[in-house]
Amino acid sequence: MKTRNAALFLSFGLAFGASVLALSVAPAQACSNRGELDEAYCDENKDLVADVPAKTRDPSVIVFAYTPVEDPAVYENAFKPFTEYLGKCISKRVVYYPVQSNSAEIEAMRSGRLHVAGFSTGPLGFAVNMAGAVPFAAKGTAAGPQGYHLIMLVKKDSPFQKLSDLKGKRVAHTAPSSNSGNLAPIALFPAEGLTPGKDYTPLWSGGHDKTALGVGTGDYDAGGVASDVFERMVARGTIKADDYRIIYKSQRFPTSGFAYAHDLKPELAKKMVQCFYDFRFPPEMQKDFEGDDRFAPINYVKDWAVIREVAEKSGTPYNKAAYEKESAREAAKAKAKADKKQ
Predict the structure, then answer these.
(1) What local confidence, expressed as pLDDT, does residue 5 receive?
(2) Taking Cα atoms as reference points, which of 281, 299, 306, 301 lies closest to residue 291?
(3) Secondary structure (DSSP) of 295-322
(4) Would you list the domain boundaries of the chain?
(5) Terminal-to-terminal C-alpha distance of the chain
(6) Vertex 69: Cα angle to 203 and 322 (nearest 5)
(7) Mean pLDDT of the chain
(8) What homologous superfamily is domain 2-145+255-341 in, according to CATH?
(9) Residues 224-249: tens digit of each pLDDT
């Protein structure tokens, strides 16, 4: 079953070009305001997310996914107490969907296969504009949503002390659409004396965990990762904090955001959102998520303002051209990986 699922999920990413072409030629609905949203959606109330369309869905099975920043199987188990609870709360079967890439996750929601999901900080903007995702929650505590920082990692015994020391070095970025893994470095590093693409050519690692591991093994001289991912890896014993030094730490960013498909029946969406808010993480989930014990409400306009600013300043706005470019790159990478295994 796992092999079959992996092939199926990979096909979502590889089929991106055809599906986007099919969707892009669909008749656009009459709309006085879309903002940055794709032509398939409308934003009459100007809250930056897609309005509920005239035709809505009430699926018998709810498909749930979480951002593919690390091994998808790890999170399928981590979220199991919640997905079991959610199924009972909304009286529907809930299936976990282990996506293999950001574009596969976004395309799954865009095409109607995915109903609710946690998206990484950066890709959430693409999910909103290109897939009609409606953000409503983030992991957190009674104090509110959790946040994280972009940190630049080097090996403990390396000679590098500040960002400007990395000119001409092997510096890892995760993926073009990643906030802390690419967009934030492009927007923030120049002020620190280091300009990605000019002072060094980013090396794509494919994930925050892979960047951290690569720095540890010496494949990269340095790498930018999300602090929460680094902390999870340390907590699980995947890496040792003492093997690294942090030479840069950014301002606080919001963590992954949970969003539902805009065309769900409003009553279902409202019930599901309340189920998220009412749930309290059991001890095993609190351990997996560094003490977070609930899903805290978020406001996309306010909480993601800095992320949208970073995207604009980095030259990677959340528009269709940037989305298609990123998705094509991920699909090509996935195909190359699959071909290599054959």
Answers:
(1) 36
(2) 281
(3) EEE--HHHHTHHHHHHHHHTT--SSHHH
(4) 2-145+255-341, 149-253
(5) 19
(6) 60
(7) 88
(8) Periplasmic binding protein-like II (3.40.190.10)
(9) 999 989 998 998 899 999 999 999 99
